[in-house]
Structures are given as C-alpha cells and as structure tokens.
Amino acid sequence: MDEDDLAYSIKVMETALQKKGFADMSGYRFGDEVAKAQGYAPVGLYYGPYPG
C-alpha cells in the first residue's frame, strides 16, 4: 500500500468512528467486495492483496 492509499483509507475509516453494528461496519472491516457480497453497503475500501 503506498502513502496515498494509506492516507485515503485513514480518511474513510475516520468517518466510521461513531458507527455501531455489524451492518454499518462490514465495509470498513472487510472491504467493499465482501460487504457487497453479504448485502452490506460499500464504503470505498479495498481489502486484500494489493497489486504490485
């Protein structure tokens, strides 16, 4: 993960500091791909091996 990706991820996760419940946190915890597959809202995060 490069510095830009890290900075972006931190900004996105800061928006979740007051959220509660698995449905609200799924995208932050597992990434958008898993969240969507489980019927939860994507939040703009990727989880998994980064290319490169």
**Largest sheet composition:** none
Helix content: 40-55%
Structural class: mainly alpha
The geometry reads as flat
What is the count of distinct domains? 1
Number of strands: 0
End-to-end CA span? 9 Å
**Separate helix tally:** 3
Strand fraction band?
Answer: under 5%
Radius of gyration: 11 Å
Report the mean per-residue pLDDT as an integer: 87
Poorly predicted parts: none
- Give, in order, the helices and strands: HHH
Description:
The protein is mostly helical and 52 residues long. It contains 3 helices and no strands. It has helices at residues 3-14, 22-30, 32-37. The longest helix is centred in the N-terminal third of the chain and has 12 residues, at 3-14. The chain starts with a helix and ends in a 15-residue tail after the last helix. The model has no long low-confidence stretch (mean pLDDT 87).
Describe the structure in brief.
The chain has 52 residues and is mostly helical. Helices cover 52% and strands 0% of the residues.
Secondary structure: elements and pairs:
Blueprint: H1 3-14, H2 22-30, H3 32-37
Question: Descriptors for this entry?
Answer:
mainly alpha, 52% helix, 0% strand
